[in-house]
């Protein structure tokens, strides 16, 4: 039934880049047998799922939204895919995304743009635009996305769904195409906090195949949904409500804080420093790591290979020139620049210092508060093409999300109303490391 739904509504949206009817049916039958034998367990056993196209599913093309990987068919599963299958989930397809997860609108995808189900003249956000749009359009019950600098939270906000970026290291990155390894993290999106909690339980696991993987000391997110927020100390960073924030977003986010207060939480405003430095620090660090990670695409080992090359150098040059899109090239050049010998200290090292200061600022805030609450993005969903020619403007839209990745913290995006045009607005909940339960429970109480 879900595949039929996708077939009827997705041509207008393009949230999916591929669906797997045959393998999904086979998987569903296996799951049914287990259920009949009384073996099925867990709240999402047998529930279909779809994953962002940078997550490997054995034998299924994983393009990462790029021509460079248009024919890449991984011979193995990502660890998160294994987790899903073990939990009885049926993987029905792969979801559209910005090329190599670089972008905020899902407009840089080689597969073609994805549209916002609330208003098809607008973007769904990005880079996990397909993952958010699919949930919003009832083309998936829950989805897996990745968040390097807001890519789960911002599309969740633009599409009016709930999404979580977990604490760095608590979900395996094995089999997930690398963008910026010190920031990348897989998370889940769903209609509500309960779905997101149940699905996050499935993929939260220490994995020996990922060297940055850690055991979550406070798992059992679904069980942890008490709906009780009495005494919860919530900090509102005043600097997240400054210039550039749409007044309608501000109003709805502050109204959500009031609602949590009514439910028994204690809400207080406090100054959060360094906000003007987070976007430059993020783009320096993420591009530096991307330039290194993407050096593996040389036209030789896998993926796209140009035709008619003269020698090995020419093969590299032509394959990378033709295989990567504009935004990816921009980041590779920026990354190589900030890592080059004359500029390393001035940019890359400086950005690392800013990153350390951002972490300290969060540490300080979490000595006083259990959770922070603010906007996810300065605006609601942009018009298609609105910022496409202005990368700096596009990057500034990440101002509230990227610091969470720089500090490795959990961040959740939950719908908190609509603007005057009927477009969804999201609020962001930020927790200390391993504080997912607090965020999910607060969102659940609110919902
Ligand atoms: N807008 C961010 C970027 O373009 C999103 C990255 C992400 O989280 N994958 O880098």
Automatic annotation (TrEMBL):
Origin species: Solibaculum mannosilyticum
Source species, domain of life: Bacteria
Main function: Allows the formation of correctly charged Gln-tRNA(Gln) through the transamidation of misacylated Glu-tRNA(Gln) in organisms which lack glutaminyl-tRNA synthetase. The reaction takes place in the presence of glutamine and ATP through an activated gamma-phospho-Glu-tRNA(Gln).
Domain Amidase: 1-440
Gene Ontology terms describing biological process: translation
Gene3D superfamilies reported for this sequence: Amidase signature (AS) domain
Name of this chain's protein: Glutamyl-tRNA(Gln) amidotransferase subunit A
EC number(s) reported in the record: 6.3.5.7
């Amino acid at each position: 039934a879900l595949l039929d739904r996708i077939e009827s509504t997705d041509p207008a949206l393009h949230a999916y880049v591929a669906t797997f009817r045959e393998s999904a049916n086979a998987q569903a039958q296996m799951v049914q047998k287990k259920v009949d034998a009384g073996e099925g367990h867990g709240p999402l056993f047998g529930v279909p799922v779809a994953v962002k196209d940078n997550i490997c599913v054995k034998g299924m093309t994983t393009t990462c939204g790029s021509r460079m990987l248009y024919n890449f068919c991984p011979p193995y599963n990502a660890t998160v895919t294994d987790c899903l299958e073990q939990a009885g989930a049926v993987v029905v397809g792969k979801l559209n995304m910005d090329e190599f997860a670089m972008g905020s609108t899902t407009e840089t995808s080689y597969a073609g743009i994805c549209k916002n189900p609330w208003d098809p003249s607008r973007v769904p956000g990005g880079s996990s635009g397909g993952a958010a749009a699919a949930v919003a359009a009832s083309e998936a019950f829950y989805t897996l996305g990745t968040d390097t600098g807001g890519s789960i939270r911002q599309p969740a906000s633009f599409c009016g769904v709930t999404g979580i970026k977990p604490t760095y290291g608590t979900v395996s990155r094995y089999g997930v195409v690398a963008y910026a390894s010190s920031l990348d993290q897989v998370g889940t999106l769903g209609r509500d906090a309960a779905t997101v909690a149940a699905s996050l339980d499935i993929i939260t696991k220490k994995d020996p195949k990922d060297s940055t993987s850690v055991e979550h000391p406070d798992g059992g997110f679904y069980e942890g949904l008490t709906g009780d927020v009495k005494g919860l100390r919530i900090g509102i960073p005043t600097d997240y409500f400054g210039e550039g924030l749409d007044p309608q977003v501000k109003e709805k986010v502050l109204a959500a804080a009031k609602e949590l207060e009514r439910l028994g939480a204690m809400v207080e405003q406090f100054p959060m420093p360094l906000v003007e430095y987070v976007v430059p620090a993020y783009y320096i660090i993420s591009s530096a790591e991307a330039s290194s990670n993407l050096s593996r695409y040389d036209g030789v080992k896998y993926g796209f290979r140009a035709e008619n090359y003269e020698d090995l150098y020419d093969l590299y040059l032509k394959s990378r020139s033709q295989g990567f899109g504009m935004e990816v090239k921009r980041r590779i050049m920026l990354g190589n620049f900030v890592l080059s010998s004359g500029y390393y200290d001035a940019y890359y090292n400086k950005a690392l210092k800013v990153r350390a200061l951002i972490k300290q600022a969060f540490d300080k805030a979490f000595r006083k508060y259990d959770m922070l609450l603010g906007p996810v993005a300065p605006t609601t969903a942009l018009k298609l093409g609105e910022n496409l020619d202005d990368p700096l403007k596009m990057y500034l839209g990440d101002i509230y999300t990227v610091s969470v990745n720089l500090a490795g913290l959990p961040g959740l995006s939950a719908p908190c109303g609509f603007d005057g045009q009927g477009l969804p607005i999201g609020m962001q909940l930020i927790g200390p490391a391993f504080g997912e339960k607090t965020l999910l429970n607060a969102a659940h109480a609110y919902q």
